[in-house]
Amino acid sequence: MSSNGAYSRYTASSNSNPYGQSYSSSGGAASYGGGGGVGYGGGAPAPGYGGASYSSSSPTYGGGGMDNSYGQMGMGLGGRPDDDHSKRGKKSIALQALNKNVLLWAGFFTASLFVYFLLSGGDFSFLMTYGAMSRMFGFGILNLKTFKSQRSTGISAKTLQLYSLVFFFRLTSIIRHEGYLPYDKSGDWLYHIIEGLALFFAASALYGISVPFKSTYEKDSDRFGEMAVPPGYGALYLAVPALIIAVLLHPNLNEDFLSDVAWTYAMYLESVSVIPQLYMFQKQKTGVVEIMNAHFVAALGFGRVMEFTFWIYSYHELSTSSGSNLPGYLAIISQFLQLVLMVDFFWYYITAVKNATPLVLPSHSGNNMV
Length: 370
Known about the structure:
mainly alpha; two-stranded antiparallel ribbon; 2% strand; disordered N terminus
């Protein structure tokens, strides 16, 4: 620790007293206990939102309380806490963080209303478009965080790889055929654009953590499925089984084997694509999730809620040519599975946003959510 600054240890001449306390010259910080001073605020900054760091202001000693940007209790020379000032400081920081969260989601919901009233026919199938919009919004947040902060901390490359496959295979199906498109006007062209942008954002984020910001990628935490496969290929444990199930059990709304399998594969794979990201959250050393990463995952979950709501009432449309509803049941089960996996995350995310505090998982041993 440096010998200068407001948090330094001082050995300047002082007035001794029977308790061994020594006080520095006017305006300096006080050090207590046999001449050995204790520094305040030393250590690494606490993790914060979006990669930002929290650091406390230099304390000021005088007739009033200690000025602290976190609103911690300040003690004046008389030993009386400066409660009013601490409460104002804490409230100010909380409101600033809460305002950013509110504005982010408010912008998304405003855009959703615009699309619903002007670009959609108001059909129930708009929920499919709404779910796609939420996914695109999530990957947009991820790109904003990655390229603005120039860091890829806390992001799972495996989840980005899987979602890139999801959007690619879904596009190969809906561009060629119309069987799985929303019934309303948004299915004419808007849904295609949204899925295309989502693919672009997912690939862009994957490029960001693989090339320009590779040095900040936390590969030691992103180790889901790395058993008996080369490092970085753990996503195969999710991608391959989903493909096998899609080949064996798929609807035939497009009446084209490749197109039907591609769409079904995208749906099954999406249900498990978030698992590596949740696993990585649990494996991070601090247990603190950057708020922009949390917004990203929450947007994916919200989109899944919208689609799950749609398929609950429409699963029978996914029947096979023989009349079996098994693909429809699998569609509901796979989407429900993703929501179950994210229940804990949703709880801590909502609590963090409501209280304007960092999202801290209760355990990061990898055993809670996945």
